[in-house]
TrEMBL record:
Gene3D superfamilies named among the record's database cross-references: ABC transporter involved in vitamin B12 uptake, BtuC
Organism ancestry: Bacteria, Pseudomonadati, Pseudomonadota, Gammaproteobacteria, Oceanospirillales
Protein family per UniProt: Belongs to the binding-protein-dependent transport system permease family. FecCD subfamily.
Transmembrane segments: 29-52, 72-95, 107-133, 139-159, 171-194, 214-233, 264-290, 333-350
Protein name listed in UniProt: Iron ABC transporter permease
Localization of this protein: Cell membrane
Membrane topology: Multi-pass membrane protein
Organism: Halomonas llamarensis
InterPro entries to which the protein is assigned, alphabetical: ABC_BtuC-like (IPR037294), ABC_transptr_permease_BtuC (IPR000522)
């Protein structure tokens, strides 16, 4: 064996050992985030007007002989809300990380691209003017359906304009900001002419709340999250290559245009469904992906689950805070995520400058 062969073999072994160690580190981090998310989930089930210990919660979930009152409170009231927090948080974070990936802009998110503002305007059309795309028999889903349709229209507008020659990713984010102001102005015009009762409903919807979710809505949210996550996971390598730039990704055989279309539309689908059911919840889709990226890097095989777990943990923790900040009263979760998300985003910005 020549000296050159020995050197190459040594370098290869060191590279393999480094990759194995890095993979184990990332898997350990994922396990740690999952454990923290589970702890927040149990705390969310335990805390409320009636407090229960984690042991009582687990017993009520698995033991049919547990006290009936505890089982009713957990299964019918708290469990749908706690699971919705996990699913919505994961969905918004996955949508945010994919938008940041395909647009190459760290500020891209469902909130900054105007999807949340569009959904709010769509909901206000139903709450104030009674406009609905669904028949009267489906009145329970009328407002979410309006919010979803208007939000997807905004997503299609963003995509169509992004196809114009000379449009950069920075300009797409500026376009999203323009949509935010546009739909906010339209929403304020509707609020100006709204009666008091409808105005109160719109304001409460815009604050974001998990309390109005139900098992059927949770099933819809979970099914869409599962479908989109599987789709993204199967294309993890292509999305990772996209972070190298369009030219390099194309040279590696990645269909950049089609992949960008899929990322924008499916990310918008996730965000639109979430906002249509629970209202406006900001900063989760912006902050959680950055936290995940700092922990596991840009490899989409790890970044996707890490983002989902970070978003789920963040929104579940916000749900706990919403019930503990003011004794005897639950603050709308959209307010909590904004209050917590702003300082977290500042910390991330300052940390990135130091790095």
């Amino acid at each position: 064996m020549t000296e050159t062969t020995i050197i190459e073999s040594t370098v290869l072994k060191r590279g393999r050992c480094f990759y194995v160690g890095l993979t184990r580190q990332r898997l350990t981090l994922l396990a740690g985030i999952a454990l923290l998310t589970f702890m927040c989930f149990i705390a969310d089930l335990s805390i409320g007007q009636a407090h229960y210990t984690p042991r009582e919660v687990l017993a009520a979930l698995w033991n049919p002989d547990a006290p009936l009152a505890v089982r009713v409170i957990l299964w019918d009231i708290r469990l749908p809300v706690a699971l919705t927090a996990l699913v919505v948080g994961a969905s918004l974070s996955v949508a945010g990380v994919k938008m940041q990936t395909v647009l190459g802009n760290p500020l891209a998110s469902p909130f900054t691209l105007g999807l949340s503002a569009a959904a709010s305007f769509g909901a206000a059309l139903g709450l104030i003017l009674g406009v609905s795309i669904l028949p009267a028999s489906a009145v329970a889903f009328a407002v979410p359906a309006n919010a979803f349709v208007v939000s997807m229209i905004a997503a299609l507008v963003i995509y169509r304009l992004s196809q114009k020659r000379g449009i950069t990713t920075e300009m797409i984010v500026l376009l999203g900001t323009t949509l935010v102001f546009t739909f906010t102005a339209l929403l304020e015009a509707l609020q100006y002419i709204a009666p008091d009762q409808a105005l109160s409903a719109v304001v409460f919807w815009m604050m974001g709340s998990l309390s109005r979710t139900s098992w059927p809505q949770l099933a819809i949210l979970s099914a869409i999250l599962l479908f989109v996550s599987v789709f993204f996971a199967r294309r993890a390598w292509a999305f990772t290559a996209l972070r190298l730039g369009d030219a390099r990704a194309t040279s590696l055989g990645v269909p950049v245009g089609r992949l960008r279309l899929q990322g924008i539309l499916l990310g918008s689908l996730l965000a639109s469904v979430c906002v249509s059911f629970v209202g406006t919840i900001g900063f989760v889709g912006l902050v959680a992906p950055h936290i995940a990226r700092m922990l596991v890097g840009e490899d989409q095989r790890f970044l996707l689950p890490a983002s989902a777990l970070c978003g789920a943990c963040m929104l579940s923790a916000a749900s706990v805070l919403s019930k503990t900040l003011v004794e005897g009263q639950a603050i709308p979760i959209g307010i909590v995520t904004s209050l917590v998300g702003v300082p977290m985003f500042f910390v991330l910005i300052l940390r990135s400058r130091k790095l």
